[in-house]
Write a structure and sequence with these properties.
The chain is α+β, with helices and mostly antiparallel strands. The protein folds into 2 domains: 73 residues; 137 residues, no CATH class.
């Protein structure tokens, strides 16, 4: 573009020189012919200059488009669009009267969710789907003998008439005790899960060790 402007300036200077020469030579006819030719040349250069300006604008637009692309293709996703997080489905278990484990529900959790949060969601779902709303709390993941052990506290509650009770409804009888142990331990241990998980679980009842004949395994750490 600068070269075209310089050409135009040179032509104008030539026009001035020719005009001066023409006056001296009194050759007005030849001068007029030269002026016409130079004006035509100027018009051509101006047209070329306009065309170059349009090409320049088009190239700038193309550059901006290329800047908006990623190495894998056009970036057609807005920068502020959140990246969808991976999720996984974990089974929640109950048990038959003979102790056979059965799936009663599932919980959907984010794959990178902290373990204690996953345990809390499973505790709530197990309480609701199998233990008639009896409360249980995934309190902490504690290191015991070098292993990551989940501590789950079962809440006995007030024991009022008509309310369900861990002691009287789920710790009584060999059948009832076996069903309770299976549902609790298998839900939290998730033995088939292949990702990072706890290595064992310890149950307490209102913060105390569970010492009942029909749920003997609940008094100790149960390893995965």
């Amino acid at each position: 573009m600068k070269r075209n402007m310089l050409k135009i300036a040179a032509i104008l200077m030539t026009v001035s020189l020719l005009a001066a020469c023409g006056n001296k030579a009194n050759d007005s006819g030849a001068l007029e012919d030269n002026i016409v030719k130079l004006e035509e040349r100027i018009a051509t250069l101006e047209a070329d200059n306009a065309e170059l300006s349009e090409e320049n604008a088009a190239l700038k637009a193309e550059i901006e488009t290329l800047k908006g692309e990623t190495p894998d293709g056009p970036a057609d996703t807005p920068a502020d669009t959140p990246i969808e997080e991976e999720e996984e489905e974990l089974p929640v278990f109950g048990a038959e009267e003979d102790g056979t484990m059965v799936q009663v529900s599932t919980v959907v959790v984010k794959t990178d969710e902290p373990l204690i949060n996953k345990m809390t969601m499973m505790a709530n779902e197990l309480s609701d789907k199998f233990f008639e709303g009896l409360e249980m709390e995934a309190e902490e993941i504690r290191t015991i003998d070098g292993k990551e052990i989940l501590v789950v506290d079962l809440k006995e509650g007030s024991g009022a008439v008509g309310e369900k009770s861990w002691v009287y409804d789920y710790f009584q009888g060999s059948t009832g005790g076996l069903v309770t142990e299976t549902a609790l331990t298998e839900t939290f241990l998730q033995r088939e899960y292949g990702g990072r998980w706890i290595e064992g679980v310890l149950f307490t009842l209102d913060g105390e060790s569970i010492e009942f004949d029909h749920v003997p395994n609940l008094k100790d750490v149960i390893l995965r």
